[in-house]
Design brief:
This protein has 316 residues and is an alpha/beta fold. It contains 9 helices and 7 strands. A 7-stranded mixed barrel has the order 1-2-3-6-7-5-4. Strand 1 (209-215), helix 8 and strand 2 form a beta-alpha-beta unit. Helix 3 packs antiparallel against helix 4 (111-142), helix 3 (34-102) packs parallel to helix 7 and helix 4 packs antiparallel against helix 7. The protein is rod-shaped, with a radius of gyration of 52 Å. The chain crosses the membrane at residues 36-56. Keywords: Membrane, Transmembrane, Transmembrane helix. Residues 1-28 are annotated as: Disordered.
C-alpha cells in the first residue's frame, strides 16, 4: 500500500542525520573567510603580547626606579657626612690660620711659624680637593636620568645607579687627618708666643718708665715729680724734665723702648737726640719735627745745651 512511517517515527519527523546537515545551512567562519580570521587572530595576539610587554616594562621600571632611589638616598647621606667632614676641617684650618696670623712679630724664632705655614699649605691642598670632590658628586646626584628605551626598560636608571655607586668621598675622608697634622705645629707656635710674652713681660718690668704728671711750665717742672707736658709752650708735642729731677736718667740710645705713663701714656721707641739747642740763640722754630713726641732736658742743667730726644709711639 503506500509508505507508512516506521515504528517510532512520525510523518513530521526526519532522520537524525538530516538534522546535523540542514539544507542550505551556514558554513563555519574559517571556512568562509580564512584571511579575515587570521587577521583577527593576529590582532588578538598582538594585543595580548602588547599587554604583556607593558606589564613587563612597568614591573622592570618600578624595580629599577626603586634601586635608583636607594642609590640617590645613599649618595645624599654620604654627601652630608662628607660635607660635615669638610666643615670640621675648615674650622680647624681657620683656627690654625688665626694662630699663625696672631703670632706675627710675637715669637723669638720664626721656625715654629714657618713649620705651621707649611702644614697649612698641605691642609689647604687637601681641603681644595675635598671641595672639588663634593662639587663633582653633587653634579652626579643632581644629573637627570631618563629612561626612554622601549625594549630595554630600566637601563637608564640602572646606569644612573651604577654612576652614583661609583661616586666617592676619598678626599673628604682624609680630612680627618688635618686635625692631627696641625695640632703639633699650632701648639709649637703657641709655646713660642708664650715664651716671647714671658720675655716681653720681663723687659717691660725692667723698662725705663717716665710719668708725665702734669701739663704746664716752670712751676710744674720745679715740682720735680716727673716730666711735664710743655706742648703749649713749644708748639710741638713735647714733654720736659729738669736734669736733676730725672733728665739725666732718660735714655737717649736709638732703638730703646720706654714706657710713658700719665699724659701721652704708651710705649715709645727712642730715636736718639734729634737736636741740641741753646736757649739764648735758638727759638721754637728750630725744634725738630716729624716725631710723635719730644723729650727735652737741659744737659748738666745748662740751658745752653737743651737736648731734644725724638720718640716714636709703638704698639709694644
Amino acid at each position: 500500500m503506500g509508505d507508512t512511517p516506521a515504528h517510532g517515527e512520525t510523518a513530521d519527523s526526519a532522520p537524525a542525520t538530516h538534522a546535523a546537515q540542514p539544507g542550505g545551512g551556514i558554513r563555519p567562519v574559517m571556512r568562509r573567510h580564512p584571511r579575515l580570521t587570521l587577521a583577527v587572530l593576529a590582532i588578538a595576539f598582538v594585543a595580548a603580547a602588547s599587554g604583556g610587554l607593558q606589564t613587563y616594562r612597568a614591573v622592570t621600571l618600578a624595580s629599577a626606579q626603586a634601586a635608583y632611589n636607594d642609590s640617590v638616598a645613599s649618595s645624599l647621606e654620604a654627601q652630608a657626612s662628607a660635607g660635615a667632614d669638610v666643615a670640621s676641617a675648615e674650622a680647624v684650618l681657620t683656627a690654625a690660620e688665626t694662630t699663625l696670623a696672631d703670632s706675627e712679630g710675637r715669637v723669638l724664632s720664626e721656625e715654629p711659624r714657618t713649620t705651621l705655614a707649611a702644614a697649612l699649605d698641605v691642609a689647604e691642598t687637601q681641603l681644595t680637593a675635598a671641595h672639588e670632590e663634593l662639587v663633582a658628586v653633587e653634579h652626579g646626584i643632581d644629573a637627570p636620568t631618563t629612561d626612554a628605551a622601549f625594549f630595554s626598560p630600566g637601563d637608564g636608571l640602572r646606569a644612573g645607579s651604577a654612576a652614583l655607586t661609583a661616586l666617592h668621598f676619598e678626599a673628604a675622608t682624609e680630612l680627618t687627618t688635618i686635625t692631627d697634622a696641625l695640632a703639633g705645629p699650632v701648639q709649637a707656635v703657641n709655646d713660642a708666643v708664650a715664651l716671647w710674652q714671658a720675655e716681653y713681660d720681663r723687659m717691660v718690668s725692667e723698662r725705663y718708665t717716665n710719668n708725665t704728671h702734669a701739663t704746664g711750665w716752670y712751676p710744674e717742672l720745679d715740682e720735680c715729680i716727673g716730666s711735664v707736658d710743655v706742648t703749649a709752650h713749644y708748639g710741638v708735642p713735647t714733654i720736659a724734665e729738669h736734669w736733676s729731677c730725672g733728665g739725666r736718667d732718660f735714655p737717649d740710645d736709638a732703638g730703646t723702648i720706654i714706657t710713658l705713663t700719665g699724659v701721652h701714656a704708651g710705649s715709645y721707641r727712642v730715636e736718639g737726640i734729634a737736636a741740641m739747642l741753646n736757649a739764648s740763640r735758638n727759638s721754637t722754630s728750630d725744634l725738630p719735627q716729624g716725631f710723635d713726641l719730644l723729650y727735652q732736658t737741659c744737659q748738666n742743667g745748662q740751658s745752653s745745651s737743651m737736648s731734644f730726644t725724638g720718640l716714636t709711639r709703638v704698639d709694644a
